[in-house]
């Protein structure tokens, strides 16, 4: 049995400003809103956008959906924390948290997972993206049929629209709403004529340390690591903060030193060990909840 993959499930729509908030609110009122006959009216968007929103809520791990015929959605722990404390996604912490959920969701957002965890190029265009993704898919043990290049191209376009800041001039107001994750500035257009893009570098100091702590603890939980972790794993392993947040070595060291000052971990760079020992043992979700509680108090 191979790993499940999902491509082009978003109906070509990136999630717009206000979509996730609206979806979470409606689910609280009616868990099967996406199956309701008046779902379009309730959500105030077209039928394909309703399908896209249903997908995005699960792909960002803000909700999970029941397997039965009723297809009810429930908020996850992450979804509940965001809805309770920052439902309008006003904090940069929340946007990074949603990015993290999306980029680690191999089963529901496979192209996003591959792009941030496997793809090694800092500069790219559509052809490079598609060629490398097709090769990676061919190497995976999975039960899916061959994925069409058209589906992968739709994922490429959607990833660009998710992260790259650019304006559209559509007559449909909904099309002119940007994806909130564009604010993170993860991808920029390098060459307009050739449509080349690149990952960007950023100042890691202005981001909250709890975001990094959450990501490290979640990585360790996922991999069954208890206390000690190699620096290389944090930099380049799949689901690591180095991969998900597009960090270089110096930026990673900077983050770990920040966390060390706060007493969350010990950084050992002697005798060539380059190892991190976690001194904060807690459930990753607790880090999120404590961060939001601090902001409220």
What features would you highlight for this structure?
297 residues, three-stranded antiparallel sheet, 13 helices, Arc Repressor Mutant, subunit A, mainly alpha
Mind sketching the topology for me?
Layout: H1 19-29, H2 39-43, H3 47-59, E1 63-65, E2 73-75, H4 77-86, H5 92-103, H6 110-117, E3 123-124, H7 126-139, H8 149-163, E4 187-191, E5 196-199, H9 209-223, E6 228-230, H10 231-236, H11 241-244, H12 249-261, E7 265-268, E8 275-278, H13 284-296
Antiparallel strand pairs: 1-2, 3-5, 4-5, 6-8, 7-8
Q: What does this entry look like structurally?
A:
The strands form three sheets. A three-stranded antiparallel beta sheet has the order 3-5-4. A three-stranded antiparallel beta sheet has the order 6-8-7. A two-stranded antiparallel ribbon has the order 1-2. The radius of gyration is 19 Å and the shape is globular. It has helices at 19-29, 39-43, 47-59, 77-86, 92-103, 110-117, 126-139, 149-163, 209-223, 231-236, 241-244, 249-261, 284-296, and strands at 63-65, 73-75, 123-124, 187-191, 196-199, 228-230, 265-268, 275-278. The termini are far apart. α1 (19-29) packs across α3 (47-59) and α7 crosses α8 (149-163). It has 297 residues and is mostly helical.
In short:
With 297 residues, the chain is mostly helical. Helices cover 47% and strands 9% of the residues.
User: What's the tally of helices?
Assistant: 13
Tell me roughly what share of residues is in helical segments.
40-55%
Content-based structural category: mainly alpha
Q: How many strand units? A: 8
User: Averaged pLDDT, please?
Assistant: 90
Q: Give the uncertain stretches in residue-range form.
A: none
Whole-number radius of gyration? 19 Å
Sequence of secondary-structure elements: HHHEEHHHEHHEEHEHHHEEH
Beta fraction of the residues? 5-15%
Q: What is the count of structural domains?
A: 2
Strand order of the largest sheet: 3-5-4
Largest sheet: 3 strands, antiparallel
Globular, elongated, flat, extended or rod-shaped: what is the shape? globular
First and last CA, distance: 48 Å
